[in-house]
Specification:
By secondary structure, the chain is of the alpha+beta class. It is 25% helix and 25% strand. The strands form 3 sheets. The chain has a 7-stranded mixed β-sheet with strand order 4-3-2-1-5-6-7, with helices on both faces. Strands 8, 10, 11, 12 and 17 form a 5-stranded antiparallel β-sheet that branches. The longest helix is centred in the middle third of the chain and has 15 residues. It starts with 8 loop residues before the first strand and ends with a strand.
């Protein structure tokens, strides 16, 4: 059995009927994984665009229904007066927010222009939630609806918006399920009678697994073999594997990016891996490096710039200062500036000293933006 996971999670989906459709089986999947304190909230408005959600953020009773899922169950929370801002106010402990555009606009990059406005509505939450885009599947009754195009648009939007943590590739998972012979031979019904929404059973399981994999990771095998080739067991495992494989389509960039030296500093001992570099994961920025001056730098109150090129979305809101170790007993002050530069000053033990070539100046800092 999976280990119990008692961390609180509250997941809000802002989209349309496909958001509701995709999340219906999430409580079952989360329960099977051992998440004991998770709530999934989906205000229901069929066909709504993201712009509709923002424009009607203060409109009482905008949502037709207000769905709240808990472990192994789901139900309608009927409210006579509910708006998006009220939902956020009632749930300040939201941990994850998933945005989904409607089918008619999902292939139009400009239709996501209100994304930062929607994200701004969560500024009063207890802790900053993580934000995601969910890519959907094509609807058979919408002309030229294309799953791959929807995923490409989500990638383009997410890559240009540092607030987005990741893409949830539900649509791509559904397409992979549809094309697998195990599914088509045993349980080939993918869409409901309306040719738009997912059929109950395996398709909804596939959607839920895709969401949970992106948010939390499917570390535990959900569907253990009972020694038979039962079709339910086989297709559930197929869905599990597809969800794991499509993680490669997500856009979190955890790679390091080099900063550019000024004329005052270079790599310590000319080791290339010591080049100052940064990476950003979500709203967490880390900067590392080991440097030494290119020549003697006379003590100066304002110090000297080490490197530059930190992108604006990685710059701290105010100058971030860290005391770092130097050669021997020496120490120095690292400044991470709002302008995207790194600076060094106040090198010495008891008093400021000149910085000379060959001294060891390592640094490693992490901060939130």
């Amino acid at each position: 059995m999976p280990a119990k996971k008692i961390n609180h999670n509250k997941i809000l989906l802002i989209g349309n009927s496909k958001s509701w459709n995709s999340s219906e089986y999430m409580p079952k999947v989360l329960g099977d994984l051992g998440y004991l304190n998770t709530e999934v909230i989906c205000p229901y408005k069929g066909g709504a665009t993201l712009q509709n959600h923002y424009d009607n953020r203060n409109t009482a009773a905008y949502y037709e229904r207000y769905i709240c899922y808990t472990k192994n169950t789901y139900g309608w929370k009927e409210k006579t007066s509910v708006s998006l801002t009220q939902i956020i106010a009632d749930n300040p402990d939201i941990t994850h927010v998933i945005f989904q555009q409607n089918t008619q606009n999902a292939e139009i990059v400009s239709s996501y222009s209100c994304l930062n406005d929607l994200i701004g509505l969560f500024s009063g939450c207890n802790a900053r939630p993580k934000f995601y885009l969910m890519s959907q599947w094509a609807s058979a009754n919408v002309t030229d609806s294309n799953t791959d195009n929807m995923l490409s648009v989500c990638k383009e939007v997410a890559e240009s918006n540092s607030n987005i943590q990741d893409i949830i590739p539900v649509g791509h998972c559904i397409e992979k399920l549809k094309s697998n012979s195990l599914f088509t031979d045993v349980a080939p019904v993918l869409l409901a009678d309306d040719n738009t929404h997912l059929h109950p059973g395996f398709p909804k399981t596939m959607a839920a697994l895709s969401i949970v994999e992106t948010l939390f990771g499917l570390d535990d095998k959900l569907y253990l073999s009972d020694g038979t080739n039962d079709a339910t067991y086989l297709i559930n495992n197929l869905c599990w594997n597809i969800a794991k494989e499509t993680k490669a389509y997500n856009i979190v960039d955890e790679s390091w990016h080099n900063l550019t030296y000024t004329e005052y500093f270079k790599n310590y001992n000319n080791v290339s891996s010591y080049q100052p570099k940064y990476k950003k994961v979500g709203n967490v920025v880390t900067i590392i490096g080991v440097v030494t001056p290119t020549g003697t730098l006379a003590q100066a109150q304002n110090g000297y710039r080490i490197a530059e090129g930190l992108p604006s979305d990685c710059c701290p809101p105010t100058t971030f200062r860290v005391v770092c170790a130097g050669s021997g007993m020496n120490k120095w002050l690292l400044n991470v500036n709002t302008t995207g530069t790194l600076g060094a000053s106040r090198y010495g033990i008891d008093t400021d000293s000149d910085m000379t070539t060959g001294i060891w100046m390592p640094f490693s800092v992490t901060y939130l933006v």
